[in-house]
Specification:
Layout: E1 15-21, H1 27-38, E2 43-45, E3 54-61, H2 68-71, E4 76-84, E5 86-87, E6 98-99, H3 108-115, E7 120-124, E8 133-134, E9 137-138, H4 139-144, E10 154-167, E11 173-180, H5 186-197, E12 201-211, E13 214-215, H6 228-234, E14 246-249, H7 252-259, E15 274-278, E16 284-291, E17 296-302
Parallel strand pairs: 3-12, 14-15
Antiparallel strand pairs: 1-3, 2-3, 4-11, 4-12, 5-6, 7-10, 8-9, 10-11, 12-13, 15-16, 16-17
Length: about 300
């Protein structure tokens, strides 16, 4: 019988589990299963993967869940198959294919030329079937109700986009690799790439291969996780999702003050920007900033 979380019981370990999500399961179902398996009080994921997508899904346990906002800002890398010649209502393989134009005349060089237009800061319309809110309602809910919707374009950042492989013909498929920032929809890239090529396109296979410092090579397959000890043994420290943040060390007295939300003087003095504070044993205690006038570390988010 798996453990059940109890508000009065001991907490599960704090940390990050690098999960290799399988196709067909939702990000929520992965989290729910791990919550039941471990009995952890707080479990969450950073960055939803669609049910058909696979790959790196960071699952955060206990105090690490409070760091999700920082994890979401990390760059991510995807490998995607874009099917040309058709469009779908969902911009992926979940909806019926609608023929647009024969892509037989499209070559790899054509795809590379158009793909180059997707690098940098670009404006992108999220898919009609997405979690974007329109008038307080999710776009997918409005679309399922038959309401014609098109979420407003928003700026996203694509650090690089390159063609990995191309299968020509009447059912051409372009396999691409995209490294991008938060909020980028690969379904939109597939749709827009097909439109610019004049033949239509939708997203097929999608795998997230890199998430910040986490990679698919070190991700844990779901079938390798069968009890709480298996999860605990594979947990990474919470700060793995804070790779660019300066670190300071607190002594026992300073730790006690920081846990009370009080500013402390630390040496050497950290630079500007967000700082992470660790206790004498190296455990992450708090995030905060420096006060240059008082020359102190000021806690903003204290972890339990």
């Amino acid at each position: 019988m798996p453990p059940h979380p109890s508000p009065d019981g001991p907490r599960f370990a704090t940390g990050v589990l690098n999960v290799n999500k399988s196709a067909g399961e939702t990000s929520f179902s992965v989290v729910n299963r791990l919550r039941r398996l471990t009995g952890a009080h707080r479990v969450g994921h950073a960055g939803t993967l669609d049910p058909l997508a696979t790959g790196v899904l960071p699952v955060l346990f206990e105090s690490a869940t409070r760091l999700a906002e920082f994890a979401l800002k990390l760059p991510k890398t995807y490998v995607a198959d874009i099917h040309l010649g058709f469009r779908t209502a969902t911009d992926d393989a979940e909806a019926e294919q609608e023929p647009v134009a024969d892509p037989s005349d499209v070559g790899a060089h054509d795809v590379e030329g158009v793909l180059s237009e997707f690098s940098g800061r670009i404006l992108q319309h999220p898919p009609a079937y997405s979690a974007v809110k329109l008038g307080g309602k999710r776009a997918y809910a409005l679309a399922r109700a038959g309401e014609a919707t098109r979420p407003a374009a928003r700026e996203v950042e694509v650090y690089s986009a390159r063609l990995l492989d191309f299968k020509p013909g009447s059912r051409a498929v372009a396999r691409i690799e995209v490294r991008c920032g938060s909020g980028t929809y690969l379904r939109s890239i597939a749709r827009d790439l097909g439109e610019r090529l004049g033949v239509g396109g939708y997203l097929g296979r999608l795998a997230r291969t890199v998430y910040g410092p986490l990679t698919i090579e070190t991700a844990v397959p779901p079938d390798a996780i069968d009890d709480a000890d298996a999860v605990r043994d594979r947990l990474l420290p919470a700060e793995v999702i804070l790779p660019e943040m300066e670190r300071v060390r607190l002594n026992v007295e300073q730790e006690a003050q920081v846990r009370q939300g009080r500013a402390v003087r630390v040496l050497p003095e950290p630079g500007p920007g967000l700082v992470r504070a660790h206790d004498a044993e190296g455990r992450l205690i708090a995030l905060g900033h420096t006060d240059p006038l008082r020359r102190t570390f000021v806690p903003e988010k204290v972890l339990s």
